[in-house]
Specification:
The protein is an all-alpha fold. It contains 3 helices and no strands. The radius of gyration is 25 Å and the shape is elongated. It holds the Pfam family bMERB_dom.
């Protein structure tokens, strides 16, 4: 087994493990965001009730509650933005994994001797290549979306 094949195999496993670790990290953060959303929602409900039942409450207390409510809304918006970014990252990881799998299939076909390929093999090779181009274009689109989001936030 040639050294370059072992190196490629090892690097492919490492890349796959990195994608897996990223996916786990993203999943944990999404769960944390969900819990934080629920907590913010409960705090917001309490503040809204306090503001509605404000009969004898001083004006500065009402202002403080309103500021707290606005802070909760801002925090929730920030979390929603982060969640959106994480969902894009999840899609990117899926596309990256799909690209890797298609690349492996394509390499199998391309490593065959041209004289031994059947017409079905050539057709399959072309289909895989087309799918690979499609996945790369989707990843490119995601990168553009991320860049546009980043520029609009600035």
């Amino acid at each position: 087994y040639p050294t370059w094949k072992r190196t490629l195999t090892r690097r492919a496993r490492e890349a796959q493990m990195n994608r897996f670790c990223k996916a786990q990290t993203i999943q944990r953060r999404l769960e944390e965001i969900e819990v934080t959303f629920r907590e913010l929602e409960q705090q917001g409900i309490k503040l809204e009730k306090l503001l509605r039942d404000e009969d004898g409450t001083p004006a500065d207390q009402k202002t403080q509650w309103m500021n707290q409510l606005l802070y909760l809304v801002q925090k929730k918006n920030n979390l929603m933005t982060e969640e959106s970014d994480l969902m894009i990252a999840v899609q990117e990881l899926k596309l990256e994994e799909q690209q890797w799998q298609l690349d492996q299939k394509l390499r199998c076909y391309m490593n065959r001797e041209e004289s031994l390929k059947t017409p079905e093999d050539r057709l399959a090779e072309q289909e895989i290549l087309a799918q690979l181009v499609e996945v790369v274009n989707k990843r490119n689109t995601l990168i553009h979306i991320q860049e546009e989001k980043r520029l609009s936030e600035l």
